[in-house]
């Protein structure tokens, strides 16, 4: 596999970032010069660790555009469309896909927690990979702008925590944002956690306040969602709503909302979802911008 930086033909040497040795060194030692498609300055209030170079006083999250037609782009696009199981939008089309490279200490924190869960449970005996890591969708609003595949029509992101999309891009997911949304919803079926779903169609609902008209093409609207790695570990499987839960019972690492359980107002869950209760249990890996002609939600 080649390095994901545009026009770099060197072999990928770091599987976590998909970078060659040269670009990984730039990312670690001088992130402001890393050749990404977009870079967003991370929140300076977020704690730093020794993984940052002493000369690096500013952290960046880097977005690297995947070229349409490449194997990696096609794989994610196919997953997005296959995971759209509810017919709640018409004319679906992926507009752009970006790899997300967070500051290295955020990646390290995720991997440290993954190793911790792997040492606690033996999922291989259950036919599951260790740590039970899954690729799941998370929908949200990007209030300022959306990154499309045409750089000339992209305005600068606001890079503030008031914008959910930018907040995630700046620092990954944050438990401080649990229960805070721009849609006025307070009900959380699985408690006070970070939510993910195997279904892109379910994640679609949570980004409707960030929908924008697609530039240069009337009649199409655009939203975003994140494809994220999530450490499920040993999931708790409640049969009733656990709205006040701040985590699963002892011995569990996450909560699994199964289809047909956890009724609310007489309505059972129609599409499964998961909740985790610590921010190092999840790591966004792709930013997907997509458009549609109509939505019924």
From TrEMBL:
Entries under PROSITE patterns matching the protein: PARP_CATALYTIC
Transmembrane segments: none
GO molecular function, a single term: NAD+ poly-ADP-ribosyltransferase activity
Top-rank lineage group of the source organism: Eukaryota
Record's signal peptide: none
SUPFAM superfamilies reported in the protein's UniProt record: ADP-ribosylation
Residue intervals of the PARP catalytic domain: 49-297
PANTHER family assigned: POLY [ADP-RIBOSE] POLYMERASE (PTHR45740)
Protein name per UniProt: 5109_t:CDS:1
Lineage: Eukaryota, Fungi, Fungi incertae sedis, Mucoromycota, Glomeromycotina
């Amino acid at each position: 596999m080649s390095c994901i930086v545009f026009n770099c033909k060197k072999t990928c040497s770091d599987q976590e970032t998909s970078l060659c040795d040269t670009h990984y060194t730039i990312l670690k030692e001088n992130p402001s010069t890393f050749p990404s498609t977009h870079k967003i300055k991370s929140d300076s209030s977020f704690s730093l660790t020794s993984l940052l170079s002493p000369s690096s006083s500013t952290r960046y999250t880097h977005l690297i555009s995947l070229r349409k037609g490449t194997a990696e782009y096609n794989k994610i696009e196919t997953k997005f469309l296959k995971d759209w199981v509810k017919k709640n939008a018409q004319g679906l089309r992926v507009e752009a896909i970006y790899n997300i490279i967070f500051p290295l200490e955020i990646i390290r924190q995720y991997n440290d927690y993954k190793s911790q869960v792997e040492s606690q449970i033996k999922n291989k005996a259950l036919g599951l990979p260790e740590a039970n890591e899954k690729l799941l969708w998370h929908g949200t609003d990007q209030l300022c702008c959306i990154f499309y595949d045409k750089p000339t029509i992209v305005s600068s992101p606001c890079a503030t925590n008031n914008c959910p999309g930018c907040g995630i891009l700046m620092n990954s997911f944050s438990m401080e944002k649990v229960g805070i949304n721009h849609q006025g919803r307070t009900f959380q079926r699985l408690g006070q956690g970070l939510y993910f779903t195997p279904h892109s169609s379910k994640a679609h609902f949570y980004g409707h306040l960030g929908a924008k008209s697609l530039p240069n093409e009337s009649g199409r609207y655009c939203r975003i969602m994140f494809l994220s790695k999530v450490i499920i570990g040993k999931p708790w499987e409640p049969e009733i709503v656990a709205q006040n839960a701040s985590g699963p019972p002892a011995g569990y690492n996450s909560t699994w909302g199964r289809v047909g359980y956890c009724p609310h107002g007489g309505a059972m869950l129609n599409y499964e979802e998961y909740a985790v209760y610590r921010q190092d249990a999840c790591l966004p890996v792709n930013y997907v911008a997509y458009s549609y002609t109509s939505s019924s939600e």
